[in-house]
Amino acid sequence: MVLHQPLIDLDGRARRTLPAPALRPDATDASITRIPTAIATRTERVQVTHISLWSVVRSAGVFWVAASAAVFAFLVLAWGVALATGLLGSVESTIAEMIGADDVTIRAAHVLGAAALLAVLFAALATIVTTVAVAVYNLGAHLIGGVELELDER
User: Fold this and answer.
1) d(CA 151, CA 154)
2) Distance between CA atoms of 78 and 1, rounded to whole angstroms?
3) Is 119 within 8 Å of 68 (Cβ atoms)?
4) What is the pTM of this model?
């Protein structure tokens, strides 16, 4: 009976061995129960020397569009709460008092339209900044070797 069986990689090299399963202390010869033990982990060190700009543009674009949409949805919700609680009317009357006007109306279409435009501009600008940051990282990684990561196989 072989207690340690090596795992063979495609190139024929043994990568690691599995430990022998432990016997339960109360097991009899007739009913031997084996308890699996933990498998040894293998650690690899890798360096990230290049990140694809196109994958960053796609990922950052999706992320920043989703973040902008979430902020815009929160703004719409806050506007609805301010309108329902009368806070918006109070703000309008305070502004009218400050500037000496008879009536001031804050229109939801103008505020939410401007917020939507700002959200689109922010998503585009943040995507561009993220892409430029990765391009700068790629240049630096080319010169100094990139970031070293330690990966564990479990």
Assistant:
1) 10
2) 70
3) yes
4) 0.64
